[in-house]
């Protein structure tokens, strides 16, 4: 994954923006995660409540990552698309409230949960704190270069999305031990 950041910075000349390889990889991973959970929701009635909620969560994250496209419609319109997806997924999951609790308990006790949690914390907390503009300005002083901050922030997000995708595969297709 870090090879993508390297290509963006070195070969693409500091091209860490919405159309960079790093950003595209993040969006592809989010789409894969959401689609895999939606596929499981469709194929497995037992896992449907939790799978549709998790798929919806990552679908909303994808919509947020693609805000630059939604801004072509109207600035901030991503919010309404994400809200519609969240409400639809919640409505589907609430058809079986007990299934939500049971599914969440199974999901959180699965060995892949630790990796999923680490990935989500990396994306939602660490990368945001690590990407604080003032931190990098004070650290680099007069040598501040925004691309360095962007590389660190986007690279840590990419790590988080990678962990979430690996956790998704581990959860949805558990290894069978002989």
Span between N and C termini?
A: 32 Å
- How helical, in percent, are the residues? over 70%
Total number of helical segments?
A: 9
Large-scale geometry? globular
Structural class: mainly alpha
What's the Cα radius of gyration? 18 Å
Characterise this structure:
The protein is mainly alpha-helical and 178 residues long. The protein has nine helices and no strands.
At a glance:
The protein has 9 helices and no strands. With 178 residues, it is an all-alpha fold.
Secondary structure layout plus pairing:
Layout: H1 2-11, H2 21-43, H3 48-65, H4 67-70, H5 78-93, H6 97-109, H7 112-130, H8 133-140, H9 146-172
Helix pairs in contact: 2-3, 2-9, 3-5, 3-6, 7-9
Task: Name a few traits of the molecule.
178 residues; mainly alpha; 78% helix
């Amino acid at each position: 994954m870090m090879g993508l950041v390297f290509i963006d910075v070195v070969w693409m000349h500091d091209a860490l923006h919405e159309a960079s390889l790093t950003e595209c990889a993040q969006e592809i991973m989010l789409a894969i995660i959401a689609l895999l959970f939606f596929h499981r929701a469709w194929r497995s009635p037992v896992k449907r409540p939790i799978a549709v909620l998790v798929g919806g969560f990552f679908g909303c994250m994808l919509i947020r990552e693609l805000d630059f496209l939604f801004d072509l419609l109207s600035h901030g319109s991503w919010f309404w698309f994400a809200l519609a997806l969240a409400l639809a997924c919640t409505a589907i999951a609430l058809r079986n409230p007990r299934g939500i609790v049971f599914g969440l308990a199974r999901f959180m006790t699965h060995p892949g949960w630790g990796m999923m949690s680490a990935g989500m914390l990396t994306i939602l907390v660490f990368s945001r704190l690590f990407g604080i503009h003032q931190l990098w300005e004070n650290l680099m002083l007069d040598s501040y270069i925004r691309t360095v901050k962007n590389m660190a922030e986007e690279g840590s997000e990419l790590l988080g999305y990678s962990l979430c995708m690996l956790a998704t595969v581990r959860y949805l297709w558990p290894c069978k031990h002989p």
